[in-house]
Task: structure prediction
Amino acid sequence: MLHPFPAPAPVTVPIVGSDQHFPVHRIYCVGKNYAAHIKEMGARPGRDAVCFFLKPNDAIVLDGRVPYPPGTNNLHYEGELVMAIGKGGRNIAPAEALDHVFGYALGLDMTRRDLQTAAGQVGHPWDTGKAFDYSAPLSPITPVAQCGHFASGRLQLTVNGQVRQDADFSDLLWKTQEIVSELSRLFLLQPGDLIFTGTPAGVGPVVPGDRIVLSIDRLGELHAVITA
Ligand code: MN
Result:
């Protein structure tokens, strides 16, 4: 097939314990899924506050090097559990939802907080705050057979060795199976979709030189450094 310029390379993520790579379709993200984080953002917590947004799949960073993005003076980390969908579908019942999960990863939903906040105040979309280049540092994907599911489990994030986020997945307002089910009522879920499940309290700014370590029980660690 001829193209007027080179076609974009497929986006893939290594799979732990395998020579195979996970081909990424879309990146869905859940916003406002931990009560303590909603409060720190100045909103009223509740299951009705939960929202969805997307990032482009070429925002994924696999080598942990995150260039400080243009257009912001307030780049924030958000440590999150990421679901990797292996079987697509629509109108998936919560009881069947976890059968559609291939595995899990650690992810950072990097956020230009100043742009996100300004957009929210005037009812504009979040894209400039959320969907920018290099905004989705990601670990390799661990298959469910190795890590199980995450009804509970600890997430911890440090910046330069200081603990900033420390939470348990039992505090998710929408549980992983509810996220998959609800997304599948709004979109045709496809194999290769990733879902960032939301961040707990403790988000904050980072600057060039800062080192972020996100750790999740049974998934290991994701290391990232902010570069100039
Ligand atoms: Mn987030």
